[in-house]
Amino acid sequence: MNTIPTLYSERVILRPFTLEDAPAVQAILNDREITDYMLTIPYPCTLEWVEAWIQQVSGDAPTGRYTFGVIRRDDETIIGRINIRVNADHQRGEIGYWLGRAFWGQGYATEMARRVIQFGFDDLGLNRVVGQCFAQNERSARVLEKAGMRYEATFRDDYLKNGVYETTHFYGALRGEWDRA
Hints:
Helix 4 (108-123) packs across helix 5. By secondary structure, the chain is an alpha+beta fold. It is 27% helix and 34% strand. The protein is built from 5 helices and 8 strands, in the order ββαααβββαβαββ. The two termini are 26 Å apart.
């Protein structure tokens, strides 16, 4: 698949980002509660950085990376981002996501994760989809579990973020075991 499709679920639409999304994305990302858990997003986050990032991810589908803007269906508000990076040789994908703080605790992250996992299995033909989060990010761990992934491992001092080594938890789902309900 060489383009980023538009995907639908009950309350959200997952679609490619446009440059018109940049101001809303910047507003979401200028929150340390979000960027502290992201490896590559700077804080503070400038509009120029967001625009360059949108241009970069818009052309990623041929490389096996599908990045979606998450839009709330009832009012077309952009609320977050989710992506899946595919390793076709191993029929494996890894999801990553962020959600604006105003939308936490409402089930949006689980819904968007489930929809992208389904996309990975049904449309991309993957056998395995994984996700990881920093150990202290208990909210993200719950999202991965609610999306149908199982805890698999902990990697101590796995990433260096802002001069501090971060431990990560690793989760995975297999096509044959994943519950589509």
